[in-house]
Amino acid sequence: MILDSNKIAAHNDGLYTAHKNKLVFTASEIAETEAIIKKLVDFQIAIPSWALGTGGTRFGRFPGGGEPRSLEEKIEDVGLLHALNNASGAISLHIPWDIPSDRNAIKALAAQHGLKFDAVNSNTFQDQADSQYSYKFGSLQNVNKSIRKQAVQHNIDVIQQGVELGSDSLTVWLADGSCFPGQLNFRKAYENTLESLQEIYEAMPSNWKLFLEYKCAEPNFYSTTVADWGQSYSYVKKLGDRAKTLVDLGHHLPNANIEQIVSILLMEDKLGGFHFNDSKYGDDDLTAGALKPYQLFLIFNELVEGMDARGMNHATDLGWMIDASHNVKDPMEDLLQSVEAIMIAYAQALSVDRKALEIAQNENDVVKAQEILQNAFRTDVRALVAEARLRAGAALNPVALYRQLGVRDALIGARGLKTVATGL
Ligand code: LRH
Ligand code: MN
Ligand code: MN
């Protein structure tokens, strides 16, 4: 389904006056709004191919209808999101959930929607029908060399697929770990994992990056072999310059100070990118910013500070991606909400008075420092995010237009009510 640009223009016309009034007011509260809007126009957040359908839980799944039945339909859905918000210009594939049958056709379809291929993700946390060995006791860490080799080869195959699509990074997330004390020799599991990762790293083209994602628990509940940022850092440091740590917001122990982790990884030049989501209890994979918007802002505050200190390009030097799943919402609406929340946090971070903050820090003026951050967080920047969309030909209110156009009903009409998208 391709969105008619006239419909976006008509929608924007209807909201234009109210929007301009808000923008004028925002510009009276925030300095240098032009520079912020320009950065927002450039900022893109990749959509994971597995988040376009309803995920469900291990207790049940309630399909929503009209879900993409193929990679082509997933690309069309991301194209639709991008047309609505001009901030979702990339798709991240999970292999073998997504296997392009005709790569040239898939590339052409993505280009038609203005989409790039973000990091490709390997999957050694599930057994595939045609695979010889099982990953029940781990993949890259496995005590059995043949199993490790199978997992390494899968990653190499994924790299090859990514190369052909024009991607330039591989995200490795391992479910490897143990469920009971004594099950695993931690040191040997580490050494096996490192050796396997080295083989994968060596197989990457020289312009590729490897992102190593960590997770404190689940599906293993006693130990995870890449459990936290320190462990991921220890691997990527040994692998080489193009190996970096990937931070998934849902993968920390409760109350972890993620913004500090981000700051240190950036300083070490070892931050690769993000999987954005939100959570209250664990790896809930809820809509970004739905629970802890202040934390999201504080993370972006460190990102902007750290990237600027290193002279990095905000839009291109890190991998920005959503990693969410949906049980009760229309996945497309949810993704629009996530992107909006991320853009808001980014805009708020851009609006922080950095010079004043530095002075307050150097004077140990704790009250002032808090005032500066909270002022940025509490100032409404939504008009800036909307203006960035307007300038790029996208919709002032993407969720409202999505509903107004009856997109989900149209997708159900085209694809049917009982559809099951591949993924979690
Ligand atoms: C693991 C994870 C990882 C997987 C995705 C499906 O919890 O965050 O990124 O690839 O979920
Ligand atoms: Mn993730
Ligand atoms: Mn996760």
UniProtKB/TrEMBL annotation:
All copies of domain Xylose isomerase-like TIM barrel, residue ranges: 100-285
Keyword presence, Isomerase: yes
Domain of life per record: Bacteria
SUPFAM superfamilies assigned: Xylose isomerase-like
Molecular function GO terms recorded: isomerase activity; metal ion binding
Keywords, alphabetical: Isomerase, Manganese, Metal-binding
Keyword Hydrolase: no
InterPro entries: L-rhamnose_isomerase (IPR050337), Xyl_isomerase-like_sf (IPR036237), Xyl_isomerase-like_TIM-brl (IPR013022)
Name of the protein: Sugar isomerase
Organism of derivation: Flavobacterium commune
